[in-house]
Every structure is written in structure tokens, then in C-alpha cells.
Amino acid sequence: MARTTKNKSKIKRASPNYELEVEFLAGLDKFVKKELKRYGHISQVKKNSLILSYSGDLRRLKDLKTVVAVYLLNDFEIPRPKAILGQENFTRLIANIRLVLEQNQFKSFRINAAGRDSSVYKRIAQEIAKATKLKHKEDGELLLRFRKEKNIWQVLIRLSPKTLAARDWRVCNIPGGLNATVAYAMNAMANIETSDYYVNAMCGSGTLLIENNRAKKLLGFDNSEKALECAKANLEKSHTTAKLILADASKMPFKDNSVDIIAADLPWGDAVGKHSENASLYTEFLKESARASSRQARLLILTHEIKIFKNLIKKQNTWQISKELQVYHGGHYPKIYLLQKL
Fold it and tell me: Which of 87, 88, 137 lies closest to 111, judged by CA?
């Protein structure tokens, strides 16, 4: 059974209905459901995926901000993958692959499955290559995932050549860079207004600045010229207007009570910074943020140094945690904190 059907209409041709699997980072389900609710019916919500029943142009989904990837679902009531090569099943699979090929440009494909190096999957790959004229490569752009779910086999066809989290604007990256879907969720937590003066401390490659679609006055700073050059390239590609300056988080170049939102992906002591120095850095950062921020300011933080951060918050009397959310990011489970002034 395919997860695509046609609606009948005597007046006009209706849009096809698609069953899509939407993949996202664990912890972001609330933001994903909010973004997707206008696209169709949501069901089977799991830790990092859900099913979306969607009717419309599949190309609209390439602009989703909170999800990692979207797949077209295909169900096959067969006992083993080899049966996909049967005429009826294979014809249906190729038809749906071609449907996805119409939405995006692909030059190659790859198969992700347990036992993908077996003779069966090699044969399947050969037949798909012959039917679609795509090259079968280890890093192929069109991702086909084969898996068994209960008594059926499923083939998931990713709609995009790369993950949606790999934004088109990202022409430069640096180690420890922030995932764009997490950055978008962080900004959503802060209830940003167009009038807010938004500062991204330790801005790195500029992800938080670019994924902020509300505040008009943006500024990012970092103590690394290389990071600022990277951020500049990404800002230009994304057509985001923001001022960038070379500065240190322990001595922010702002007047007292002048900033509405300070956002930062603080060093974790992993790809960026040193664990042994983070307690001191975080302490100075919290003090400077308190000095530079306005009375109604919000502080938006992502960190994996959860114990250090919460201990520091207990010892100070300027900031209080308003919201916190644990998310999956790069093999870790850091927390997003939204703080407000006491």
C-alpha cells in the first residue's frame, strides 16, 4: 500500500494526499507541531519523528524551519525486501521516486538499510539506477531508507538533497556550530518583538542572528576575527542585516540597560572553549549581560554545562529561569534556558 492517494472532485482536480514522515531533533516536538499544524493532520508523534498527512505542493515543505528532514512514505505488504522488485511494487516505487525528482534536482541516490551491501540491495540499487538514470553513490543526494515496521516493509524517500537543517544560506561553518533548527526554536522561546534590540554574544557563524525573523535591530559579536568573517558570509547569503563587531563577552561594548535580548550558544568545553575555564567565563558573562540589558530583558542560552550554569544562577540575584528545554544536539543533550530579570 502506498502512502499517496488521489481525491476525486467533479469540479476540479484535487491535490494528492501524502503520508509523510517528518524527522526532527529530540526536544523540539512542540515547535515542530506548531509549525506543521497549518499543513495537515499530525499523528504518531515520537521522540524525533511524526506522521504528517499533507495535501498540496511538496515543494512548500522545503522551507520548514524546525525539522531535519521530510520523507515520502511507501508501504509494501511483502515478506522481504526482494519482493520490491516485483513488477507492481517496483512500478509504484519508481513512480513515487519520480514524484520526488520533480520537486528537486538530484544527480545520485543512496540506500540506507540494514544489510545494504547484500546482493538483494545491490540488485535493487541497479534497477533503480536503470529506471531513474541516477547514479548509485555512497553519498548520493536522494536518500532511500528501507525498514521493516511490524508486518510491512517501508521505503522512505527524502524530499530534499540534503537535510533541511543544512540551510542554503550556510556558506561557511566553524567547529561547534549551532544547528539551525535549534537556533530557530531558541528564538521562538524568547517571544521576540520587532522593536527588540537583539544581541548575539559569541555569535560564531551567525546562526542565531539569521534564524531570528522578528527583531529588526541585530548585532553579533565574537572575540574571533575568523568567526566574524564566517558570520559575515552567512549573513550576506541569507540577506540578513546585522552589525558585527570584535568584542569579548566579559566586557561587552554596550551602555548600561541598553539591550533587550542577549542570546548565546555558550562554549561547552567540547568543540569550543575549555571545561576548566567555563565557570569563570559564565560568571563574567552573566554579570555583563545583567549590566548591559534593559529592565525587561531576556537572556537566551544554550549550554551543555548544565550543572555549572544552574549553580551560578543560584548564586546570583539578577536573573531567574523562566523556561528550560533539553534538546538533542550533535551527540549531546544540552539545555536551552530563557531567563528574565528579577
Answer: 137
- Asked if CATH classification 3.40.50.150 holds for the domain at 180-341, the reply, yes or no, is yes
Q: Which residue has the higher pLDDT, 129 or 268?
A: 129
The confidence score (pLDDT) of residue 3 equals 58
**Spatial separation of the C-alpha atoms in residues 73 and 60, rounded to whole Å:** 17
Q: CA-based angle 298:302:305, to the nearest 5?
A: 120
Q: Name the residue ranges covered by the structural domains of the chain.
A: 4-158, 180-341
Q: Quote the cell numbers at residue 107.
A: 544527480
**Average pLDDT of the residues in 200-221:** 96
**Pick from 340, 274, 266: which is nearest to 304 by CA?**
266
Return the CATH fold of 4-158. Answer: VC0802-like (3.30.2130)
CB 272 within 8 A of CB 256: no
Residue 120's φ and ψ, nearest 5 degrees, are -65, -50
Output the pLDDT for position 213.
82
Neighbours of 63 (CB within 10 A): 8
